[in-house]
Structure formats: C-alpha cells, structure tokens
C-alpha cells in the first residue's frame, strides 16, 4: 500500500471491526433466543402417582426440562433456596401451586410459569404462583446486579488501557500495585452504586465491596500482564475475555439453563458469573453457596498474579536477549520518538475501549 497514512487508518479499523463481529456473535448467540435447556424443576409428591406425573411432564417437555420429585413442599423450598431447581410444582385438583425464586432468575421464573400454567389448566384449576425470594423493590426484575457487573467491568478493563499506555515506563510491580489500588476504588464505586445510590443492596455492603475488589483486581492484573505481550491489542483481548464471554455467561439476564451449552458451561467458572451469583447469594439467600463463588474470583485473581509475574520476568533486562526485544523498540530511542510511540499506543487503545 503506497500511502502510509491510509495504511495507518486501515490498521486502526481492524480493532473496532473485530469488536463488531465479536460482540454480535456473543450477544446475539447468548441472548436472542433464550430457551430452556435441561432446566431443573421439581414436582412435589410421594408415591407412584407423583412419579408418573413427573415423567409425563418430562416426556412432554423433552430436553427442555430435567424433572425430579420431592416428597414435601418444604423440601422443594429448600431446593429453590439452594438454587438446585428453578421452580417446584405442587399438583392439586383444586389449587395447584408453582413455587419460584425470582431473585435467583426472573427470566427463569417466567419460563417455568409458562411451562406449568397449561399443566394446571389441563387439571382444570388456576395456577397459584408463590415467590419465596423476591428482589428488593428498587430492583424488581433482579437484573440490577447485571448492570452493576457491567459498570465494575468497564472501570476495570478501561483502566488497563490507561495503566498500560501511560505507565509503560514503570516497572511491572509498580503497575500491579496501581492496579490493586484502582481495583479498590472500582469496588468502592460499585458498593456506592449498589447501596446508597440505587439501593440494590440493603445489607452487607462491606462484603459486596470485597467481592467487587476481588473481581476487579483479577481483571486488572490479567490486563497489566497481557499488555507486556499484546501492547495495543490488549484491549481487544480484554473485551473478548471480560465483555463478550463474560457478560453473556454471567447469568445476570439469563441463567445457564436458558442458554446454549457453550455459555452455560462458561457460567460454571467465569469470573462474571462468580461475582453475580456470589452477590445474589449474599443479598437474597443468606450466603448459601457463596464460598464457591468467592473461590472462583480468587482463582481468577491468582491467574492475574501469575500473568503479571510472567510479564515481570519477561521485562527484566537481564533476562532478555536482543532477539526478544519487541519490534516497537527498534526505532531510535529519543525522547521525541518515545513520546510519539506512547501517544500512538494510548490513542489506539482508547479507540478500542
């Protein structure tokens, strides 16, 4: 290509075009057609009649439902509180009941209601719906935690671009310390948004802040480490990891049983799911299951520490041979050239954000 300026523009366009493709594939693949996939539900009843009824529901629904029977209504409520089932149906000739927990998933509760409303109608009685875990009145759909996740994520991965571009001359350990401090601030912003500002959380704000710090610190440290190797492509990598794959698998809008197998599998170990499900456990289910979610966030933080450690070893001058020096350092090492390179890299990463 003859024009360096045109080549420069076209190079800059690669990142937003790849983001367009990636965001379209991720968001539309995860959210456009939510359908139950092996959604766990329970039928309350003992004896062969209840088992036959449960099997009939299963045969009618096919792969959409996984149906189990429990002997008592109390046992079904415990399964809902543990989020082992999305809904529990109590058959009755006069007043059949569906028990749900909308705080766990408003969309899931809606899906099981659609399944069992015609079942109750077939029995000739209206369906009574009982919600054992409602979201707070300030967050009636329970989706506020998903938008909190988005805010904290943006504060985290956008800060990676700033630390990488503006702090490139600093040692990795210094950049890592800055990242840990930024994570504390981002977590504090998240706690303020969730508590005094939008009232999503009416208790345990300190624990929520700690979980937000864990989540943000993992993202920031991974980004700081990756920047050593990916340079201006770091933000694209962060968008893939912590937007395209993260938001879609978090369970903030649709839990995994309403998504295809790919996003459902990611939900089991991705950090966004760890944050959203952990905060749900904290706020609505008495902390039940929160330990697993916290360990998920800790695991991602450990990955971030490892990636940053590898980057620190790579950047140690004593460990780098001439062949290992990045191509971007081949230009004359003058202050003007260095400033120009830093400004160009910062511009490219800001455009990507």
Helical content class: 55-70%
| Strand tally | 5
User: What is the H/E order?
Assistant: HEHEHEEHEHHHHHHHHH
Proportion of strand residues: 5-15%
Mean pLDDT: 87
Descriptive tags:
5-stranded mixed beta sheet; alpha/beta; 353 residues; elongated
What would you note in describing this structure?
The chain has a five-stranded mixed beta sheet with strand order 2-1-3-4-5, with helices on both faces. It has helices at residues 4-31, 48-61, 73-81, 106-122, 144-166, 172-197, 205-230, 234-244, 246-249, 261-267, 271-284, 290-315, 335-352, and strands spanning 39-44, 65-70, 87-90, 97-100, 128-131. Residues 327-332 have low confidence and may be disordered. 63% of the residues lie in helices and 7% in strands. It contains 13 helices and five strands. By secondary structure, it is an alpha/beta fold. Helix 5 runs antiparallel to helix 8 and helix 7 runs antiparallel to helix 8. The chain is elongated and about 75 Å long.
Would you kindly provide a brief summary of this structure?
The chain is an alpha/beta fold and 353 residues long.
Secondary structure elements and pairings:
Elements: H1 4-31, E1 39-44, H2 48-61, E2 65-70, H3 73-81, E3 87-90, E4 97-100, H4 106-122, E5 128-131, H5 144-166, H6 172-197, H7 205-230, H8 234-244, H9 246-249, H10 261-267, H11 271-284, H12 290-315, H13 335-352
Parallel strand pairs: 1-2, 1-3, 4-5
Antiparallel strand pairs: 3-4
Helix pairs in contact: 1-8, 5-6, 5-7, 5-8, 5-13, 6-7, 7-8, 7-11, 7-12, 11-12
């Amino acid at each position: 290509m003859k024009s360096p300026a045109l080549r420069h523009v076209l190079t800059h366009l690669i990142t937003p075009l790849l983001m367009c493709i990636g965001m379209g594939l991720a968001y539309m693949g995860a959210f456009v057609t939510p359908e139950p996939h092996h959604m766990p539900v329970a039928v309350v009843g003992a004896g062969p009649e209840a088992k036959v009824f449960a099997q009939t529901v299963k045969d009618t629904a096919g792969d959409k439902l996984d149906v189990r029977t429990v002997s008592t209504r109390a046992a079904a409520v415990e399964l809902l509180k543990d989020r082992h089932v999305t809904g529990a149906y109590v058959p009755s000739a006069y007043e059949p009941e569906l028990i749900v927990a909308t705080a766990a998933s408003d969309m899931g509760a809606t899906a099981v209601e659609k399944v069992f409303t015609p079942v109750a109608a077939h029995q000739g009685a209206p369906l009574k719906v009982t919600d054992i875990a409602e979201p707070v009145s300030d967050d009636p759909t329970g989706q506020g935690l998903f938008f909190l996740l988005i805010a904290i994520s943006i504060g985290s991965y956008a800060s990676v671009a700033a630390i990488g571009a503006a702090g490139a001359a600093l040692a990795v350990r210094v950049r890592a310390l800055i990242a840990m401090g930024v994570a504390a601030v981002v977590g504090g912003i998240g706690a303020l948004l969730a508590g005094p500002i939008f009232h999503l959380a009416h208790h345990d704000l300190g624990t929520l802040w700690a979980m937000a710090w864990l989540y943000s610190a993992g993202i920031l440290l991974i980004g700081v480490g990756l920047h050593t190797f990916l340079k201006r492509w770091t933000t694209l990598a962060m968008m893939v990891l912590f937007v395209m794959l993260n938001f879609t698998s978090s369970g903030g809008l649709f839990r995994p049983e309403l998504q295809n197998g790919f996003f459902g599998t990611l939900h089991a170990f991705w950090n966004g799911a760890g944050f959203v499900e952990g905060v749900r456990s904290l706020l609505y289910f008495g902390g039940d299951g929160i330990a697993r979610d916290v360990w998920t966030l800790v695991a991602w933080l450990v990955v971030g520490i490892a990636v940053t450690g590898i980057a620190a070893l790579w950047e140690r001058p004593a460990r780098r041979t001439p062949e290992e020096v990045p191509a971007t350092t081949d230009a004359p090492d003058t202050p003007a050239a260095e400033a120009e390179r830093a400004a160009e890299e910062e511009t490219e990463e800001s455009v990507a954000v």
